[in-house]
Amino acid sequence: MRLVVDLNRCQGYAQCAFLAPDVFAMHGDEALLYNPEAEEKRRDDVARAVAACPVQAILVDAGDRGENPGTDREVTGEQ
Fold it and tell me: Counting CB atoms within 10 angstroms of each CB, which of 10, 23, 41, 65 has the fewest?
């Protein structure tokens, strides 16, 4: 699945790193590292991370929807 994180919006709360540590990791106090091509088997963990982000900085590509997309915060490409 394809992920997009708005790094300008991310405030480093690290909720995603706690919920999906194999996809998200903090580098230092504020820098987020993440795998933009997370494995499908991590969809549930990623969905929890998306829902837990207090600033809604994590998006799941809408073209990659599966049976459990996680949240309504998905990239649609609509203007």
Answer: 41
Q: Please report the beta strands in the chain, taking only residues with DSSP state E, as ranges in sequence order.
A: 3-5, 24-27, 31-34, 58-61, 74-75
38 in Cβ contact with 3 (< 8 Å) = yes
- Please state, in angstroms and rounded to a whole number, the distance separating the CA atoms of residues 4 and 59: 5
> What pLDDT sits at residue 8?
94
Give long-range contacts, CB 8 A cutoff, 24+ apart: 16-21.
16/49, 16/50, 16/52, 16/53, 16/58, 19/45, 19/48, 19/49, 19/52, 20/45, 20/46, 20/48, 20/49
What pTM was estimated for this model as a whole? 0.75
Are 5 and 58 in contact, with CB atoms under 8 Å apart? yes
